[in-house]
Structures are given as C-alpha cells and as structure tokens.
C-alpha cells in the first residue's frame, strides 16, 4: 500500500447488486474473487456464478467471508496462502477479514495483510531489497577482491 491508497491488485469493491439476501461479489473492474472447482481461490471474469458470491458472518469484532457455492470460509495463513476451508467454530484469525468502507483493501488472514492478486514479481522485490542492502555493489562501486580470478565471491 502506498500512502493508504490500495495498489493495483488490492482494490476490491463489495458489489451487492441483484441481491436481497446479503450476498455480494468482491470485484475489481470486470474481475471477481472466485473459487474454482478444485476449491482454489482465484480472480476470474465476473459472472453470476455462486462461486463468485460471498456472504459475511459477523461476530467477535470481525467478519468471516463465506463462499456461497462451497459454504467454506476464505482464509489466509501466515505465509500469505489464500484458500477456502471449513469455517472454524471460533473466529479464527486466519478467517477474519475486513473490507474498506469505500471498497479499498480486503484485509485479514493470520498475518492481517491485504489480499493482493497482482503482487510484485519476485525478481522485482528481490532486486529492491538487494538495492537497499547492497547499493554500492549494484552500482559498481566494489573495486577490489582477494578472490582468485574466475572464482565466485559470495557477498
């Protein structure tokens, strides 16, 4: 997130159109949060499929998001893996979610992070981390090494 504004891939709008029963979809443009036939959470082209419909179960100061088709709860573990699973009897931290009032970020899971379906590529993230940690090396400012010519030096 940048200055409190969700980045691309994090802004999901709660769409309650055509629903009198509390069901909604979570959409970003023409893409909706969906559960495929194997139970994997994904973004898919929006349709009227129950796999893209969710309902909220409020309690203990938190919300659970329940997929209408599977009756399973959206959850995320500490590593960031997002899945659907049987809803816990208590409001387990991995199944707690909140949606910004104006759409915004879907935030929650065990690590209380924003759901992001367009994360930075690993290479970009690793380069940025290396750039912060080893800026002089990446800028070509390393002039001398005691390693024999042709051998690899680990930094």
TrEMBL record:
PROSITE patterns, per the entry: RICIN_B_LECTIN
Renumbered residue ranges of the record's region Disordered: 1-22
Signal peptide annotation: none
Identification of the protein by name: Ricin B lectin domain-containing protein
Organism: Perkinsus olseni (Perkinsus atlanticus)
CDD domains per UniProt: beta-trefoil_Ricin_AH (cd23415)
Domain Ricin B lectin: 20-146
């Amino acid at each position: 997130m940048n200055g409190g504004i969700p980045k691309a891939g994090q802004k999901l709008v709660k769409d309650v159109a055509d629903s009198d029963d509390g069901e909604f979809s979570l959409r970003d443009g023409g893409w909706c949060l969906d559960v495929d036939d194997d139970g994997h959470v994904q973004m898919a082209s929006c349709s009227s499929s129950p796999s893209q419909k969710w309902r909220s179960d409020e309690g203990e100061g938190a919300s659970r998001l329940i997929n209408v088709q599977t009756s399973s709860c959206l959850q995320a573990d500490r590593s960031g893996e997002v899945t659907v699973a049987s809803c816990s009897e208590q409001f387990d931290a991995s199944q707690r979610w909140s949606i910004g009032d104006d759409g915004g970020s879907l935030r929650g899971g065990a690590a209380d992070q924003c759901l992001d379906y367009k994360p930075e590529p690993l290479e970009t993230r690793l380069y940025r981390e290396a750039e912060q940690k080893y800026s002089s090396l990446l800028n070509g400012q390393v002039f001398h090494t005691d390693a024999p010519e042709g051998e690899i030096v680990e930094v």
